[in-house]
Amino acid sequence: MNHDRYDDAYIRAILSEVRTIAIVGASANAARPSYFVMKYLSERGYRVFPVNPGQAGKTVAGLTFVATLADVPEPIDMVDVFRAPEHVPAVVDEVLKLDPRPKVLWTQLGVRNDEAAARAEEAGLKVVMNRCPKIEYGRLSGEIGWTGVNSRTISSRKPLRLGEGVQRLSIAPRGPKSS
After folding, report:
1. Is beta strand 20-24 parallel, antiparallel or unpaired with respect to 78-81?
2. Residue 125 near residue 18, CB atoms below 8 Å
3. Cβ atoms of 95 and 118 closer than 8 Å
4. Residue 75 CB coordination number (10 Å)
5. What is the pLDDT of residues 32-70, one digit of tens each?
6. Helix axes 114-122, 88-97, angle to 10 degrees
7. In terms of CB atoms within 10 Å, which of 6, 44, 68, 146 comes out highest?
8. DSSP letters of 18-63?
């Protein structure tokens, strides 16, 4: 797969299908991007498991850290990697040992390792690199457009609300318009 560009349909399908996300390299520091991502995805209905051996057992934003992917207490649909590119092969090694295997390997902005991606794809995983699921979710749901950012998504349909709050929209497929 060409990892220089992803179709919106590919990203939307991934974010619509996954339910559990392990965030490798998550931080308990509220000023770190990984903290924002884990909190945001959790608030959008995903089951999020922060993975950081230095924080194992600590609960932050209602989420309990685990030391390794193998410590996640339920099957993982997606692994989101907040580690430097040279650490991605070791994460892929850990992912490939899981049973059942996650469906998706996602690496954050600035994180790209083509060799590790090829290994994950050969094992049947979908791969997204150098993207942020928080940004993609916000862009595809229309939330990001409320701040004046061009989401490259145009629709005449009213967005689906995701609970209370002004900027809580869903990327779920929209059914027929109800009256």
Report:
1. parallel
2. no
3. no
4. 13
5. 999 999 999 999 999 999 999 999 999 999 999 999 999
6. 10
7. 44
8. --EEEEET--S-TTSHHHHHHHHHHHTT-EEEEE-GGGTT-EETTE
